[in-house]
Design goal:
The chain has 156 residues and is an alpha+beta fold. The protein contains six helices and four strands, in the order H-H-H-H-E-E-H-H-E-E. The N and C termini lie close together (8 Å).
């Protein structure tokens, strides 16, 4: 089989194509914090208004956010996370934890998130089947895309 010039088929790449832009994840952060009005999103993300409007349209079209009018005159909307959007919140929490640990390195943290138990949330990825913590050394990838191996395109 001839090598392909297309990149590896990948759900990570598909997700990043939708939410990988800086302001998309920051919008989701704000919506999950309860700040879903356009002016709040502009202020809290620092996004230019035109870019923010485009990101919001894309997130609504993808089913990650819903848009609801809260004022008719002038017409204004607020955004809320759908179930798909809420399912991205653990990704945000994991990114936050990584940033706290590797980029802040003991500096004052800009935000602490507490779990319902009252303790600071430190997210851990676990296996749904056995409950064990996911560690790199315990993972084995099994490419399913025809013509692809772990090393890249090749014979099936």
């Amino acid at each position: 089989m001839a090598a392909t010039k297309d990149p590896r088929p990948c759900s990570i790449a598909d997700a990043l194509a939708l939410v990988g832009e800086k302001y998309s994840l920051l919008v989701l952060r704000e919506v999950c914090l309860g700040n879903g009005r356009f002016d709040q999103l502009v202020r809290n993300t620092g996004a230019p208004r035109d870019i923010l409007a485009a990101r919001l349209r894309r997130l609504v079209d993808a089913g990650i956010l819903t848009k609801r009018a809260y004022s008719e005159r002038p017409q204004r909307f607020e955004y809320r996370a759908t179930q798909a959007g809420l399912e991205l919140e653990p990704v945000l929490m994991t990114l936050k934890e990584w940033g706290d640990r590797h980029l802040r390195k003991g500096a004052d943290l800009p935000m602490v998130v507490k779990h319902v138990c009252g303790n600071e949330l430190i997210p851990v990825v676990t296996c749904r089947a056995c409950g064990g913590e996911v560690r790199h050394r315990d993972l084995t990838a099994h490419p399913q895309a025809p013509g692809w191996t772990v090393a890249g395109p090749g014979a099936a």
